[in-house]
Amino acid sequence: MALDPKIPEGPLADKWTNYKNHIDLVNPANKRNIDVIVIGTGLAGGSAAATLAELGYNVKAFCFQDSPRRAHSIAAQGGINAAKNYQGDGDSVYRLFYDTVKGGDYRSREANVYRLAEVSSNIIDQCVAQGVPFAREYGGYLDNRSFGGVLVSRTFYAAGQTGQQLLLGAYSAMNRQIGRGKIKMYNRHEMLDVVVVGGKARGIIARNLVTGEIERHSAHAVVLGSGGYGNVFFLSTNAMGSNVTAAWKAHKRGAFFANPCYTQIHPTCIPVSGDHQSKLTLMSESLRNDGRIWVPKNMDDVKAIREGNLKPTAIPEENRDYYLERRYPAFGNLVPRDVASRAAKERCDEGYGVNKTGEAVYLDFAAAFQRYGKERAHVRGLDENDAALVKRLGQEVIKEKYGNLFQMYEKIVDQNPYETPMMIYPAVHYTMGGLWVDYNLMTNIPGLYSIGEANFSDHGANRLGASALMQGLADGYFVLPYTIGDYLSKDIRTGKIPTDSPEFDQAEKNVKENLDHLINNNGSHSVDYFHKKLGKIMWNKCGMARNAEGLREAIVQISELRKEFWKDVRVPGTQNELNEELAKAMRVADFLELGELFAKDALQREESAGGHFREEHQTAEGEALRSPEFQFVSAWEYQGEPKDAILHKEELEYENIEVKERSYK
């Protein structure tokens, strides 16, 4: 079945404007009679809930955290992209659009990406008006820095806590609407099913995580802003509570799941220290603006470092391999994430890793200390040849830009990154796959929308850094409020959606049966036992590099693990209490299904593209090798078992960008 993305007619640059000019609207008096459910209160869900409520809709917002401020968006560090061209360095809406499509290895939809670039400037204005404390230059103008995969500076930032500040802006907008009574907030609630009535999404089944009570909630439309599924790998940079449940339940109700194999491996994470770990910590990509990545050239130096007999600062420049600068001179340390991650893996696989496990490379700021220190000394009329002074002044500049990140690194690793290089290694971070949506951000189930990381639409096979925050806020503040209005204009006479229908009865029954099974199973292994086993299968067979044999093995192993889970998982406690193990068990059950579909999607995609790297499909230089026949979106239809899922395709047409081999050299 060919999917219809509902892309408007006309020139690319005019599509969004023409679309908005011709959609149906809901007048303010009628908005008061329409209910919308929003799942998730991160940047996408929070901005959507606030904006829809401000427009006049009645919004029910759900989050499984104790507060919307706990959403994983708060962990984003480096910045948010926007085509403002404040630096005067040649940026434009088209260049942001081009960089995003190229960065995604030509596997994203042109119309959606151009719209994203087009509204990006509005996001910055909105957030400044909310009081978001973006960094500013000496003269008071908003500052920018660079991120991977681009040749301009377009990333707005607030030190190393950009996500937190942007989320506080969305949270304040939500709180205003909560105070007005336009948003009814359901903290500590988790969506466990979507209810489809008459072919339309009309509500959800939710569980009160404090009391265990199962609740029915109805609405005229349901919006999923529930984030990504990186925790299918167990170890990731995601918050431990991040999960796929909302999107997966929608998939099991008929929503197509698109490109599940497109997962981003972030190159600058603190390396794994042992099996005791439950999550990984990200060091912002913004650090690659000033940090240089290297490993020793000589194996003797590597061995001495691992044995603790040599410090990295003692290795002279001529014995260091700045491999990104060597391999990709045009972009250097700011190549896209998939390229940087594979390059680090290649060096470590060759034996040049610098920690005890051999899975780490250096991120070194010594050159930045010198560069910034000399500039500051010059400005202040001080001695530029005083090495100690220059280093101290340079460290002051780095502390102003990234101080909280350096502090976080030191607390975790117990090493001072001002005195010795950071150690980093790639780790699972973001997921480009998600629910399939059309140009309106609606899934193939009418009335069910998916926004932010929960959908697949904007990043193709690899997301450029600082674009996640951009997409989440673009969807919530500036796209969904228009597109959902066109749909809801047909519902102004529908009236309240009742919750006593057979569809709600059946959905609640399914949820209760699963909960009853898990709590009464009395198996012999904990939830984490199964989650860790799944994570190892995923990382070893579906991680940075994949091959047909490993993917076939993964499909079988995950299927067997899932059967074992339902037979032998042990969940302590009861249903009618705050039971985090029970909540976790429900989420891991969904991961055990998603993981198999992930491997199936990766197996059928006989090419390498962005974060999906098939060892059988690479160039002579070890770069990803795309295949023209896979220039489509893989959208999977649920059929009871992941192995039975049916593939639907959305062919990707490029009318404004020439598709060619990606090069950052």
TrEMBL record:
SUPFAM superfamilies: FAD/NAD(P)-binding domain, Succinate dehydrogenase/fumarate reductase flavoprotein C-terminal domain, Succinate dehydrogenase/fumarate reductase flavoprotein, catalytic domain. It is an enzyme of class 1 (oxidoreductase). Its EC number is 1.3.5.1. Pfam families: FAD_binding_2, Succ_DH_flav_C. Residues 35-469 form the FAD-dependent oxidoreductase 2 FAD-binding domain. InterPro entries: FAD-dep_OxRdtase_2_FAD-bd, FAD/NAD-bd_sf, Fum_R/Succ_DH_flav-like_C_sf, Fum_Rdtase/Succ_DH_flav-like_C, SdhA/FrdA/AprA, Succ_DH/Fum_Rdt_flav_su, Succ_DH/fumarate_Rdtase_cat_sf. Keywords: Cell membrane, Electron transport, FAD, Flavoprotein, Membrane, Oxidoreductase, Transport. It is found in: Cell membrane. Its cofactor is FAD. Residues 531-664 form the Fumarate reductase/succinate dehydrogenase flavoprotein-like C-terminal domain. PANTHER family: SUCCINATE DEHYDROGENASE 2 FLAVOPROTEIN SUBUNIT, SUCCINATE DEHYDROGENASE FLAVOPROTEIN SUBUNIT. This is succinate dehydrogenase. It comes from Gelidibacter algens.
